[in-house]
């Protein structure tokens, strides 16, 4: 998906000039930001980058130049353009400074001047001038932002036309202590990978990054976000496997990861997530667990029927581990995955044990014997060809 758009860092800043060197006022603002961060308990790796910017030291390693430009632009805006500095009481503005810095950096890092919704440019649609980003109103009134007690709790820039090759800037971690929702969905030109610093958002309840160009592996740090109840990464370019550490996310209710490039066998540990209500897995490359099944309890039910069961029993090839299937007896309502056409046959063991599933997977076929919705692989491929 990322390659289709061929966007560059220049696209993210096509409505403004390069940040350039910091002027005196911006340098003073940078010092103020560094001082404020030092007074907080936020666990962030941001300080070394800001100190390097202050000293104008760039070793060429591990620096995201588009985000470095965004920092300069944000500091310049805070120092020279932010009218809220004169409208707000000094102590109130001081308390809001780090949040306004983080948000303005995110604005410039994602091509805010070209957003389709609530850019500071009047060409973009917006319900009110006060809801426009970088307006002199409280940042809590900006579109997609909600606050509790003056602290950010909600960051939702879905379908805003974000453009970035590296997700969001590190400055976002300044919001981590109180942020409960982080959504950047429906932004096809939002690329890069989920960074390891996403794990700093220990208060996060909902993470949405679906229908984007985000790619790469799910970082291990995500599995430490134990308050998450909603993880929606579908219709993007994620790959790799789902870690057994997902079993740490005990509060998870919604796991929507369909239409990506995930692979390997699903971990049994998903079955530990007893609060799950919906799982969507289709459109990936998950491997299928193979298990042997015995016919000891099966009586002779006729040649054709016994043959079907024998074929099904020789090799059960199922995408869903049995601990995950067991969640359907708890609160799980939606379990969606792939299957091949005509892949299930009646389970003859059902006659001897009512707890047995109604169907089992036919030998040589791949499917899910317990899913609530099955997406035939062949049909999905034909649909993709028609769309393209």
UniProtKB/TrEMBL annotation:
InterPro entries: Leu-rich_rpt, LRR_dom_sf, LRRC69/RLP. Keywords: Leucine-rich repeat, Repeat. It holds the Pfam family LRR_1. It comes from the Eukaryota. Gene3D superfamilies: Ribonuclease Inhibitor. This is Leucine-rich repeat-containing N-terminal plant-type domain-containing protein. It comes from Thalassiosira oceanica.
């Amino acid at each position: 998906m990322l390659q289709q758009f061929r966007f560059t860092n220049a696209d993210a800043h096509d409505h403004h000039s390069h940040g350039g060197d910091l002027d005196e006022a911006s340098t003073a603002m940078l010092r103020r930001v560094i001082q404020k961060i030092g007074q907080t308990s936020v666990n962030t790796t941001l300080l070394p980058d800001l100190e390097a910017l202050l000293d104008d030291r760039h070793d060429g390693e591990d620096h995201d130049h588009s985000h470095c430009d965004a920092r300069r632009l944000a500091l310049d805006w805070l120092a020279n353009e932010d009218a809220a500095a004169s409208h707000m009481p000094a102590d109130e503005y001081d308390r809001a400074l780090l949040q306004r810095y983080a948000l303005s950096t995110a604005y410039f890092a994602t091509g805010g001047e070209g957003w389709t919704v609530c850019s500071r440019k009047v060409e973009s649609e917006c319900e009110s001038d006060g809801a426009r980003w970088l307006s002199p109103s409280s940042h809590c009134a900006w579109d997609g932002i909600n606050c509790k007690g003056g602290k950010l709790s909600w960051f939702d820039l879905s379908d805003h036309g974000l453009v970035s090759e590296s997700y969001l800037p590190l400055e976002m971690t300044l919001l981590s202590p109180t942020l409960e929702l982080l959504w950047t969905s429906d932004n096809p030109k939002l690329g890069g990978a989920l960074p390891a610093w996403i794990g700093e958002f220990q208060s996060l309840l909902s993470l949405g990054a679906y229908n984007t160009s985000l790619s790469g592996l799910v970082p291990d740090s995500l599995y430490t976000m134990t308050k998450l109840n909603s993880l929606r990464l579908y219709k993007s370019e994620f790959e790799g496997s789902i870690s057994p550490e997902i079993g740490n996310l005990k509060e998870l209710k919604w796991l929507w990861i369909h239409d990506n490039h995930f692979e390997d066998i699903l971990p049994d540990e998903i079955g530990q997530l007893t609060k799950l209500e919906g799982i969507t897995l289709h459109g990936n490359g998950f491997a299928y667990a193979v298990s042997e099944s015995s016919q000891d309890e099966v009586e002779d039910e006729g040649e054709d029927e016994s043959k079907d069961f024998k074929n099904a029993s020789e090799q059960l090839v199922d995408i869903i581990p049995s601990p995950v299937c067991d969640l359907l007896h708890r609160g799980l309502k939606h379990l969606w995955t792939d299957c091949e056409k005509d892949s299930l046959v009646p389970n003859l063991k059902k006659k001897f044990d009512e707890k047995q599933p109604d169907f089992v997977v036919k030998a040589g076929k791949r499917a899910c014997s317990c899913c609530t919705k099955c997406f035939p692989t062949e049909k999905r491929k034909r649909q993709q060809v028609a769309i393209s």
